[in-house]
């Protein structure tokens, strides 16, 4: 489980996002990060049992992201993130394609997965797969149990017009307009500090696995 102390650290960091405070509280950060690494390790074990592209021996350190913010190209200049994040794929957090993601934040934790803003060649391949196998795609993401848990795909970056090569009357046109293929499910602090937190995260990823597999097949 994620410890209450981990969430407390993130809360305090958000209120004191500066290097002087962080230096004094570096030990709290290290303890929180260790907690997240241990949690990620248990998630990896669970993931690898149904998604065999995820090595059971994947190092959690290759999945959990650093808390230090890259401010070079960002309008947000605070030096630290107010969350812990972990990406899960064959190569941990370094993946260009489908994968799973865990976001730990006192006021907005969630699990997610898919292919976020794929590059042009990957986007073309995913759209082509949806074009060719729309019924299979719908069977996955329009399954009632899937919708109940994940809802609709992320549509923030959805095109307002049809993508090149597809007509407005295409049966899958609303999905073909997507530029990012991801789903997410919010998790409360109570859920993540519960003894069944790892199982809940793993089960959530398991529900997402057929969608991930569809995307992988599209770009393979």
3D architecture notes:
The longest helix has 25 residues. The protein has a 4-stranded antiparallel beta sheet with strand order 1-2-3-4. The chain is globular and about 60 Å long. Helix 1 packs across helix 3, helix 3 packs across helix 9 and helix 4 packs across helix 9. The protein is α+β, with helices and mostly antiparallel strands and 220 residues long. It has a single domain, classed as 2-Layer Sandwich (BirA Bifunctional Protein, domain 2). It is built from 9 helices and 4 strands; from the N terminus they run αααβββααααβαα. This is TIGR02453 family protein. Pfam families: DUF2461. It comes from Daejeonella rubra. InterPro entries: CHP02453 (IPR012808), UCP028451 (IPR015996).
What keywords describe this structure?
BirA Bifunctional Protein, domain 2; 9 helices; 46% helix; 220 residues; alpha+beta
């Amino acid at each position: 489980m994620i410890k209450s102390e981990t969430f407390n650290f993130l809360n305090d960091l958000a209120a004191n996002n500066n290097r002087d405070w962080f230096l004094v509280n570096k030990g709290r950060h290290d303890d929180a990060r260790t907690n997240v690494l241990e949690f990620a390790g248990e998630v990896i074990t669970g993931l690898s049992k149904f998604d065999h592209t995820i090595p059971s021996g994947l190092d959690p350190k290759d999945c959990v992201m650093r808390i230090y913010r890259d401010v070079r190209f960002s309008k947000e200049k605070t030096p630290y993130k107010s969350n812990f994040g972990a990406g899960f794929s064959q190569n941990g957090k370094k993946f260009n394609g489908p994968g799973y993601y865990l976001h730990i934040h006192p006021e907005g934790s969630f699990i997610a997965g898919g292919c976020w803003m794929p590059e042009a060649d990957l986007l073309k391949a995913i759209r082509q797969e949806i074009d060719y196998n729309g019924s299979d795609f719908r069977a996955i993401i329009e399954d009632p149990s899937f919708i109940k848990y994940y809802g609709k795909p992320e549509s923030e970056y959805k095109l307002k017009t049809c993508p090149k090569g597809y007509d407005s009357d295409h049966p899958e046109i609303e999905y073909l307009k997507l530029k990012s293929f991801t789903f997410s499910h919010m998790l409360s602090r109570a859920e993540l500090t519960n003894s069944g937190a790892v199982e809940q995260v793993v089960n959530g990823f398991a529900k997402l696995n057929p969608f991930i597999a569809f995307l992988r097949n599209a770009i393979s």
